[in-house]
Design a protein that fits this description.
The protein is α/β, with parallel strands linked by helices. Helix content is about 40%, strand content about 20%. The strands form three sheets. A four-stranded parallel sheet has the order 6-5-7-8.
């Protein structure tokens, strides 16, 4: 909660879209944050109903390429979390580079291992969807469970995924023989040792 409080105050966030599951934590956070005026629980029936009644034209707003798409915060391991503003053009350019470089197209089956809240997680979701690939989502508890990863990779005939080097090394040792459909693995987010 402390990390979230620092982020909400730093970014002067007025609204949080969330789920009912996090209601108590968010109410505590709201009490500590002067800028946080609204908590919207997207899975609440009344909210779902209200959103569904809105015309599609009212749900979209055109953004300029230099406007912020999101703010990515560091872990704060060296002190307070630091925010990096990512513009629309940055994420669009990166995603389309990824699509071209890693040949993401119809017929590709992309496993999204990286959590969505990491910058590489954004690429692992947007790249496959915009490239016309099939995106396979994995549960949080399965991300580091080698047996569950093996099952997911083979059952879905995964061809592409992105992961951190440490997990890549473990996968090579533990399930390398089961990766017959795999064509491209991207490694990012940490130091890549020469022996890999």
């Amino acid at each position: 909660v402390e990390r979230l409080r620092v982020i909400v105050q730093d970014a002067v966030i007025p609204v949080i879209l969330s789920q009912e599951t996090f209601r108590e934590k968010l109410l505590d956070l709201q009490k500590q944050s002067a800028s946080l005026n609204h908590l919207v629980y997207l899975d609440h029936p009344a909210v779902c109903n209200k959103i569904s009644r809105q015309p599609l034209s009212s749900r979209w707003q055109q953004a300029s390429s230099i406007q912020p798409a999101y703010i990515m915060y560091t872990s704060g391991s060296s002190g307070l979390p630091k925010g990096v503003l990512v513009e629309h053009r940055t994420i669009v350019n990166t995603v389309f580079w990824q699509i071209e470089r890693f040949e993401i197209a119809p017929g590709v089956i992309y496993l999204q291992i990286t959590p969505y809240f990491f910058d590489s997680g954004t690429l692992a979701i947007l790249g496959p969807l915009l490239g016309g690939a099939c995106l396979v989502l994995i549960r949080d508890e399965e991300r580091t469970d080698i047996s569950a990863l093996r099952t997911c990779l083979t059952r879905n005939a995964v061809t592409h995924f992105l992961l951190i080097p440490v997990l890549y090394n473990v996968m090579l040792e533990e399930i390398g023989d089961d990766l017959k459909d795999l064509r491209i693995i991207s490694c990012a987010g940490d130091y890549f040792p020469d022996q890999l």
